[in-house]
């Protein structure tokens, strides 16, 4: 294509790009809603402090904004003192931007992948949820046997994963290929919202997918107790 101005050279590429621009709509970002940014991790910059790495899912964040870091039973208030993307400092960032955020007074070792950055007091974290679950059939790579109450396997959502207990709503068994309302119990409180998707994996393969339908009040339970404690369904 180097210098080719014939019908099938550079002009054809431009026609293709124009056609794509006219056909595909840019993704719609919620820049007005409450701030929410799942964190991928954190690093320490010598002489500066802790930098959070993540992508804004919703809202707009400005330099100097007060925020909270939620997840894994923690609620950490802080202030964003600098925003950078691709090495460039910005006064603000919006939904869809992948950024590094310098925060004040937060130690790097308390930040875990999967925490969520939110506006102060805008959401509540919990370890108990109701969800709609689909158990993959064997032909879809799922289980060959049903699950029942106290089924425990790793749950994945956005940038985090944690052990999860699944209890079928009516206490019956859930067969591969079936849908059901279930209760999810986690050993630690995490941020999840209605409509948020998740997957459950067993031996490194996805065996179930679902959507959160209700955020329930938290219960006190440790990792060792999550499979033993009696729960009201």
TrEMBL record:
Which key words tag this protein in UniProt?
Elongation factor, GTP-binding, Nucleotide-binding, Protein biosynthesis
The organism encoding this protein is: Ornithodoros erraticus (European soft tick)
The identity of this protein, by name, is Translation elongation factor
Domain Translation elongation factor EFTu/EF1A C-terminal, first and last residues per copy:
125-215
Q: Which PANTHER family match?
A: ELONGATION FACTOR TU, MITOCHONDRIAL, ELONGATION FACTOR TU-RELATED
Pfam name, any one: GTP_EFTU_D2
| One GO cellular component, as annotated | mitochondrion
- Residue stretches making up the Translation elongation factor EFTu-like domain: 49-117
GO molecular function list:
GTP binding; translation elongation factor activity
Report the record's Gene Ontology biological process terms: mitochondrial translational elongation
């Amino acid at each position: 294509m180097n210098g080719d101005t014939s019908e099938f050279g550079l002009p054809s590429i431009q026609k293709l790009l124009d056609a794509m621009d006219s056909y595909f709509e840019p993704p719609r970002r919620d820049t007005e809603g409450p701030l929410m940014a799942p964190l991928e991790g954190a690093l320490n910059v010598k002489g500066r402090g802790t930098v959070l790495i993540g992508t804004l899912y919703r809202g707009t964040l400005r330099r100097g904004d007060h925020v909270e870091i939620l997840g894994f039973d923690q609620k950490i208030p802080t202030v964003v003192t600098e925003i950078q993307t691709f090495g460039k400092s910005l006064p603000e960032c919006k939904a869809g931007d992948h950024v590094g955020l310098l925060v004040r007074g937060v130690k790097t070792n308390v930040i875990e992948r999967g925490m969520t950055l939110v506006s102060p007091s805008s959401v509540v974290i919990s370890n108990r949820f109701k969800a709609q679950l689909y158990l993959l059939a064997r032909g879809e790579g799922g289980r060959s046997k049903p699950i029942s109450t106290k089924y425990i396997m790793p749950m994945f959502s956005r940038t985090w994963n944690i052990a999860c207990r699944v209890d079928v709503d009516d206490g019956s068994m859930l067969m591969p290929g079936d849908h059901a309302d279930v209760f999810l119990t986690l050993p630690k409180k995490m941020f999840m919202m209605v409509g948020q998707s998740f997957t459950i994996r067993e031996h490194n393969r996805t065996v179930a997918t679902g959507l959160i339908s209700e955020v329930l009040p938290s219960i006190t339970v440790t990792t060792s107790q999550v499979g033993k404690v009696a729960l009201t369904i």
